[in-house]
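Hi R.,

Here's the chain you asked about this morning:
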Amino acid sequence: MNAGPVAGALNFELPEEIRMLRDTVRRFVDRELIPIERTCRDGHKLKPEVRARLTAKAGELGLSGYDVPQEYGGLGMGLVAKVTVWAELGRSIALPSRGGEVFGPNVSPILYHLNDAQKNRYLLPTIEGKLKWCLAQTEPDAGGDPGSMRTTAVRDGDHYVINGTKRFITGADEADYAQVITATDRAKGSRGGITAFIVDMKAPGVRLLRAQELVVDDRPWEIAFENVRVPVADRIGEEGDGFRHAQHWLNVGRIRHGARSIGVIERCVELGTGYAKQRVTFGQPLAERQAVQWMLADSFMEMHQLRLMVYDAAWKYDQGRDIRTEAYMAKMFGDTQSFHAADRCMEIHGGMGLATDLPIEKFWRDQRSMMITEGPIEILKMTLARHVLRTYG
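And here is the predicted structure, written out as tokens:
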């Protein structure tokens, strides 16, 4: 959203360059992803030859490094442009729901907050594709409540000694290093007692315990840290700053949830509308039945609401504003309504909605899982309620 030509007016049109970006990504999705979405993966990962072809195609279209700042050789797109990309990619199940990397190496936002020495050692090699990372925050007893984290880091001279277990860590099996969120003062919890570190995945005491089988196409890992010695030089920021760094990553991640959900809802509306027009029961197309019409209308309306919420949050972020509450709302509304859209689309398709020939069942599984990851709906709603009570009390 931009200021309109008249003082005080609002302009809800995307800038021309972002509209062109949207059209380019949509063609990429329609031509390259949707046709192969049921044959492109081996388990939960892209087949190597498919990844190579899609990466080359993304490079030809000028999409490589779209989320990397210009100072590091990327396109330096703002969040408004990024959500445009994420929304279009959300229309297909071809790319893994957590990490596709056909647009260049995946770079954690936390890495841009490293000091210069750490950037040279970790950020730049990551951007160049030489290193891979994972974020280790969730624990068996501390998922949505980071203040109860039990993985500890105890200072010992010029090192910290880390002990604990992390669970549901995506990409841990391929990571060269982990961004590990630990408790350095459990009494303070998330209010100054959480610290982040970069930990070499080959360091003595780091063990991959098992891959967790999930209902979705993701195989996150459980990791044990047993007396892992980490140099003070590999601490991210100051002691006690870890929760702030993690929340920065999660705020952008939650907006990504909302943006992806836009694409999911749109594809479900496309599929539902097309099938409703062609499927005839009792001598009449499904599209003539009010029950089906209302399902499509509800999803269409929710897609419009979500698009406004996501772009509003992204615009504020690009203006340097705090978007915590907007991020909560975008994730809650997006994940919930995209699951409902997939559920309605499945209902419209009947038995075919359950078939793996179509992407509907995967949208249904993925979006249900999204309601839990990166902040369960109930916890975010509780936090949002606190904001409401403070603001209007």
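One quick note: The CA atoms of residues 229 and 288 lie 67 Å apart.

Cheers,
M.
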